[in-house]
Amino acid sequence: MEIKSNAQLERIRGQDQWRVLTDFEVVLSDKRSVIVPHDFLTDKASVPFGLAIKRDDKHIIDGALIHDYLYFSQKIEGQWIKRKEADKILIDICKYSGMGFIKRFLVYQGVRIGGWTYFNKRAIELGNIYHAKRD
């Protein structure tokens, strides 16, 4: 895995969202590339474990940005992905960034428990063949 540059984000005044200022690219361990385009909006890490993991935690920022983008686009290099793959990529990036096992476990449990509603709603909108499957 390779993170090509640091994510550069700007908070949108009065909102709980941040705008990506420059394209942000991660090359996955299988050599596929995920590019989050500038102007993409994110809420950073929205895991329900605010006391254990802060949304600005240096170990989760890059992973959360890629994860939000994958839930939004649901594709890597033009191919549909399953929610489980997006969740695993988040955890892989967190590990690459130095996040410890317990925090990674909490993050993974959070997205597995809470992510399916958004992913499936978006999958149906996009026509992702993997919609409404709890994997």
Structural commentary:
With 135 residues, this protein is an alpha+beta fold. The protein contains 4 helices and 8 strands. The mean pLDDT is 90. A hairpin with a 5-residue loop joins strand 4 and strand 5. Strands 1-4-5 form a 3-stranded antiparallel β-sheet, covered by helices on one side. Helix 1 (61-73) runs antiparallel to helix 2 (83-96) and helix 2 (83-96) runs antiparallel to helix 3 (101-114).
Q: How big a fraction of the residues is strand?
A: 15-25%
How confident overall, as mean pLDDT? 90
Distance between the termini: 24 Å
* Backbone CA Rg: 14 Å
Number of helices: 4
Overall structural class, as computed from helix and strand content, comes to alpha+beta
Number of domains: 1
Could you spell the SSE succession in H and E letters? EEEEEEHEEHHH
Largest sheet composition:
3 strands, antiparallel
- Fraction of residues in helices? 25-40%
What assembly state would you assign to the polypeptide chains in this entry?
single chain
Tell me the number of strands.
8
Low-confidence stretches are: none
Strand order, largest beta sheet: 1-4-5
Shape: globular
